Amino acid sequence: xxxYVITNEDNCIQLYAISDxxxxxxxxxxxxxxxERLDFVIKSKSALEMKPDLIRSLIxxxxxxxxxxxxxxxxxxxxxxxxxxxxxxxxxxxFCSIDLEKMSLEFLKKDVQSSTVVTSSKLCxxxxxxxxxKFFRGELCSDGKTDVIIVTGTITNEYPRPMRVFGYIxxxxxxxxxxxxxxxxxxxxxxxxxxxxxxxLFVCTQxxxxxxxxxxxxxxxxxxxxxxxxxxxxxxxxxxxxxxxSILIMEKGHKSYIVAKVVxxxxxxxxxxxxxTQELTxxxxxxxxxxxxxxxxxxxxxxxxxxxxxxxxxDKYASNTLLQTKVFVKKASSRKLVEITKEVSLKxxxxxxxxxxxxxxxxxxxxxxxxxxxxxDLFLGEWINLNCEKPLFKPSSNENSGWATCxxxxxxxxxxxxxxxxxxxxxxxxSVAVDVTSGNTDEIASLPTALTNCSALHVRVPQxxxxxxxxxxxxxxxxxxxxxxxSYSESESGSESESEDEIDSGSESESEDEIDSGSESESEDEIDSGSENESEDEINSGSEGESEH
Length: 549
Prior knowledge:
By secondary structure, the chain is of the alpha+beta class. About 20% of the residues lie in helices and about 35% in strands. The chain has a 5-stranded mixed β-sheet with strand order 5-6-7-8-30, with no helix packed on it. It has a 4-stranded antiparallel β-sheet with strand order 4-3-2-28, with no helix packed on it. A 4-stranded antiparallel β-sheet has the order 9-10-11-12, with no helix packed on it. Strand 24 (about 415-420) and strand 25 (about 420-425) form a beta hairpin. Helix 1 packs antiparallel against helix 2. The longest helix is centred in the first third of the chain and has 15 residues, at about 120-135. The termini are far apart. InterPro entries: BACK, Kelch-typ_b-propeller.
């Protein structure tokens, strides 16, 4: 005969205490239940009977990050008030273990700082004031958002390629899981962007003339899908389609841009910068970036200091076998594009381009074993280093890795290890952070799963959307259907649970919309980088009157 213990939020603390006292087999199972439902358990009356050892283990467990520190503080306040004389000393000890940096400034000032049990300890008061000062010094952001690097990739290089999506929480050096796109496709034509205004991640794919946009809403934690078609440039024939090369969204002002290519007859191609709507399904303004007599590739594009749009192109001339790299810079507030490579020549094929403070860093490959480095100062409007063999920053040693910059560091994820001319077929879970200024490298938390064909994107999202640890017991319980009342058997670890339905990617109807390009189109003369004396646009003259903060 089997004996079962029915566990719920009202009796789990008492059952755990009994199991702990008599060293019963149920102890581990009930503790797992408490961790899975901790956000509800600490709000129950039975939680006030918790023993100090159990409280300490829960506060210090990193996988329980899904429970807000505000809720933990409120629980501790209620717990200590049950027995002020006997529990105050424990409270002071627990308070020092709570990460106050994860609390909002408003909560710290209104609830924590005014708490009588906090004010009774000089150590607690000092810790609270020190964290409040961090907000005023700018060390902590009061907008409730945190830096996250979204990393996507595939677990194999062979078809079909299932995609995985993870979030790296920079301040906490940990990973969280994000719902995977429930489709498989070639990642070479996938473009990523993030909208700060909507807290949405956009993943755009293209098949011939059709575009498909996948949208992950952090607020709803769901994926939706929409098919659409960008209309051709007004002066072009209807038969020429736009191919998206990159998508850029400004963090401030929330302007959206699409860098797109049009392939013309006889091997010619043009590159355009389109000012797009927030949903990226239509464009309002169109600027010609470059007109080529050969096939051109949009290699990289990025935003610098939230005001410069930087584009790297690789152009193969019909009369020359050399690949020529061209870089263009445009102020978001201006119409004019400036080619900063007009007076110089970047040797080899452009490989990477990223912005760090007021500078653009570039790598360009000469051959498989030789990489050159260049740096352009956007403020001075001049090249600091050009075609240097000595590395100015550490590039990734892996093939097909993904990278993104955040503050003073470049983060590199995954890929396939290279040994000489040979590239390993197996993906890696390598993760490193490189200080761009000093060149020092630090190992960080490894990818949860080895990935290749990686892309990385730095975003800022509200903390509550990335609170869960990659091994979050609450999320695992939801995925396994075991978050409700659970039965335990001494001979069995639990009843078989039903799986939750897969994420629905098609809740938004697929409609192919012909999108108007808008009535405004700039002429080629307005975009030419000639001799216009626009003070704000003299990027290549060094006379820009921009104050440095």
